[in-house]
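re: the backbone from monday

yeah here it is again, tokenized this time
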């Protein structure tokens, strides 16, 4: 990775929170090391329930989730259910699906349902980092577009952070000068 792209990656992931939901402690640790080297804050969850709890209480910019949570499981049913639960409760959070048992039909179905990417184990670090950076940058661009829209629409009220993060805005946002629009960065 060149210095320019490493700097770009560092800038993209700095102060961003990524949740890794995987039953394997080794996988969670590998992601924590890889992503934190590039400035990301990495949270881990070993179960679907833990992952949903983290999403409910933390501002998460991106989720990477496993498709199987038991050693003997290979169907992806647990991951499919978790994906749909996250999508229903936190629709703005990009989800990268991760599995050792790649099923093309499942991947296509979930990407059509809104998954941001589908990556097979073992993963390629460069490809994974590129995907994560692109998704974080896309979220940032959406937040900037929401902010611009709020400034250009006098009656609009929006929270930039809640448009791209799992946690809803909890602040009372003051009107922007010379506008009735309300914008905050939580």
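seq for it, each position gets an aa:
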């Amino acid at each position: 990775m060149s210095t320019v792209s490493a700097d770009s990656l560092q800038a993209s992931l700095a102060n961003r929170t990524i949740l890794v939901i995987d039953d394997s402690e080794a996988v969670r640790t590998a992601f924590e090391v890889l992503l934190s080297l590039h400035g990301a804050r990495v949270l881990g969850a070993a179960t679907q329930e833990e992952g949903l709890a983290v999403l409910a209480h933390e501002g998460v910019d991106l989720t990477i989730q496993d498709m199987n949570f038991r050693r003997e499981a290979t169907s992806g049913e647990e991951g499919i259910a978790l994906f749909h639960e996250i999508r229903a409760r936190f629709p703005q959070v990009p989800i990268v699906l991760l599995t050792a048992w790649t099923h093309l039909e499942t991947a296509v179905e979930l990407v059509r349902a809104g998954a941001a990417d589908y990556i097979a184990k073992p993963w390629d670090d460069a490809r994974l980092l590129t995907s994560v950076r692109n998704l974080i940058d896309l979220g940032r661009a959406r937040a900037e577009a929401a902010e611009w829209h709020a400034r250009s629409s006098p009656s609009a009220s929006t929270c930039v952070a809640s448009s791209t993060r799992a946690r809803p805005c909890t602040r009372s946002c003051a009107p922007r000068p010379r506008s009735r629009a309300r914008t905050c960065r939580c």
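The helical segments are 3-13, 25-36, 48-57, 77-89, 104-112, 125-152. The longest strand covers residues 17-21.
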